């Protein structure tokens, strides 16, 4: 994608554009010669700025702390916000998403003015995606009065989630119709970082988002959701293959355009190392012999071995190829990586009859002897997990799995920001069909969702064997559909969270340490908004439902229910 090398300059240019207010009556001395006149901005140059900004922000959530919420991953240090949901106001997140909207608003304006229908469709699709994400994350938000500061609306009202979801559905319908009429964009391959100007793929993306949001509101507005999903299904225009997925590749030339936690920009490798697979996900993958396991995660470097002949409770030192290395409790990650690659195997033995936890208040056993070992959610101090002899962050926990070395990289292969996928689409249709809606065969869609996810992660050849696993073969339940959709949302965990919030599935259980005994359901409105648009924010907070988990923040809490789940009994009472 040729445009990618120009992204840093484009981002700078658009940042100037967002903060520059060029008016005809300004004197020349006040004009910014480096600014961009919104009245003549080229929509080609605005489009990739919107797309890359949104994709980066979305993957940072889905690969970041939301993966902690839905127990894809845990962090074994600096864990409060990741494992324990001990969240503060999300001011920076809020600013980022509304910043994308400002740029996208200009894209739409210039597309209409220049009569470029393709770009207009892109702007409508991205507007729906951004507003949908905002409402998904917080609840009520500025919508109908948003982005109207130049018209004098400085304190926009907060619209209800119902209004926002209905609005984005209409935007997506309009976008789909626009793409159907526009044809491919001749100049867009140099600027469209998702689809190289392919109008049909953008139409599929718009329709896939329609399926997402129809299902999102299905418990609250079934009279809209059911016919909506049935209509999209009847059209046949939606993601059907992993090659359709809405993804952004990274170019990997600096930290901002590389995969999150790329170790090229983190010499200590600490950010990669402290992020571990959660036991919830690992257990599922191991039990069902899931071929994605080895793509995403590494075996433990030093495996526990039960040895009833051992004279003491457990080895003090590790063993190399069965022989104790006296005085060696651990090697560094880099040393172990090289030694294991050279063919050595490392273990520690314990006597299951006499072993006693060394720090029972931190880790009370039992020892996990598996080849792949995940960290349980919400531990008090996860660095002690599985009798790690080197707690803290100087040396890795050799007795717990780590993410694949692939996730140390800058770019390439599976390192993509994924906004929506064919697998998600198939699981949505499977759930709709399972409800009895006219959306085809639930089992066929379920099986397709698994096949498409395996295709995404490069293990499609394993499908025939995997689909026959006892825990995988379709059993006709919503729980199984959502479970496989939850797995398939790896690195795009926001969708797994929103599904959990809507359905209570999978039945995730908090660990022992989180600040609340329930998983959160929303982000917290920021003090910045309260200080600057207090009346509107307070009215939105008042519409939230305080719960027994809300705590000292009361209604403006991550455990207070927005409209979408009020009255549904989900994900918890």
From TrEMBL:
This is SusD/RagB family nutrient-binding outer membrane lipoprotein. Pfam families: SusD-like_2. The keyword Coiled coil does not apply. Residues 549-573 are annotated as: Disordered. It comes from Dyadobacter chenwenxiniae. Residues 1-23 form the signal peptide. Keywords: Lipoprotein, Signal.
């Amino acid at each position: 994608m040729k445009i990618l090398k120009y992204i840093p300059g484009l981002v700078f240019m658009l940042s100037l554009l967002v903060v520059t207010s060029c008016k005809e009556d300004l004197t020349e001395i006040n004009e910014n010669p480096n600014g961009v006149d919104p009245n003549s901005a080229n929509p080609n140059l605005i489009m990739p700025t919107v797309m890359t900004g949104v994709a980066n922000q979305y993957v940072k959530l889905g690969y970041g702390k939301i993966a902690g919420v839905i127990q894809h991953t845990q962090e074994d240090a600096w864990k409060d916000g990741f494992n324990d949901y001990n969240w503060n106001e999300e001011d920076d997140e809020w600013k980022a998403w509304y910043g994308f909207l400002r740029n996208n608003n200009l894209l739409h304006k210039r597309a209409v003015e220049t009569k470029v229908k393709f770009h207009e469709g892109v702007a409508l699709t991205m507007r729906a995606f951004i507003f949908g994400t905002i409402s998904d994350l917080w609840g009520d938000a500025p919508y109908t009065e948003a982005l109207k500061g130049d018209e004098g609306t400085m304190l926009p009202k907060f619209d209800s989630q119902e209004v926002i979801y209905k609005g984005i559905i209409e935007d997506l319908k309009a976008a789909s119709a626009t793409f159907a009429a526009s044809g491919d964009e001749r100049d867009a391959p140099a600027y469209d970082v998702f689809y190289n100007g392919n109008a049909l793929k953008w139409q599929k993306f718009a329709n896939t988002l329609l399926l997402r949001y129809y299902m999102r509101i299905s418990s609250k507005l079934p009279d809209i959701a059911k016919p909506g999903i049935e209509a999209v299904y009847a059209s046949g225009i939606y993601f059907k293959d992993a090659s359709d997925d809405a993804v952004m590749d990274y170019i990997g030339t600096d930290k901002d355009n590389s995969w999150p936690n790329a170790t090229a920009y983190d010499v200590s490798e600490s950010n990669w190392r402290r992020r571990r697979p959660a036991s919830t996900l690992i257990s599922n993958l191991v039990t069902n012999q899931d071929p994605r396991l080895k793509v995403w995660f590494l075996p433990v470097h030093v495996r526990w071995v039960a040895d009833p002949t051992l004279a003491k409770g457990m080895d003090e030192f590790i063993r190399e190829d069965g022989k104790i290395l006296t005085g060696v409790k651990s090697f560094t990650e880099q040393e172990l990586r090289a030694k294991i690659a050279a063919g050595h195997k490392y273990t520690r033995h314990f006597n299951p009859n006499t072993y006693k936890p060394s720090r029972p208040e931190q880790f009370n056993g039992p020892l996990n002897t598996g080849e792949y070992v995940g960290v349980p959610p919400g531990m008090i101090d996860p660095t002690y997990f599985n009798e790690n002899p080197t707690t803290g962050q100087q040396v890795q926990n050799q007795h717990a799995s780590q993410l694949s070395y692939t996730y140390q990289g800058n770019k390439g292969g599976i390192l993509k920001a994924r906004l929506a996928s064919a697998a998600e689409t198939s699981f949505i249709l499977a759930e709709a069909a399972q409800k009895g809606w006219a959306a085809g065969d639930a089992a066929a869609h379920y099986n397709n969702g698994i096949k498409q996810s395996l295709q995404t992660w490069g293990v499609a050849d394993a499908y025939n064997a995997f689909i026959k696993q006892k825990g995988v073969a379709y059993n006709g339940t919503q729980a199984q559909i959502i479970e496989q959709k939850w797995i398939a949302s790896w690195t795009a965990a926001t969708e797994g969270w929103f599904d959990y919030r809507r359905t209570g599935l999978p039945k995730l259980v908090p660990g022992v340490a989180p600040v609340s005994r329930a998983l959160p359901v929303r982000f917290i409105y920021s003090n910045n908004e309260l200080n600057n648009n207090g009346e509107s924010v307070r009215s939105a907070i008042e519409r939230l439902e305080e719960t027994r988990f809300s705590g000292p923040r009361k209604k403006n809490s991550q455990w207070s229910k927005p409209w979408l789940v009020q009255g549904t009994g989900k994900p918890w009472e």
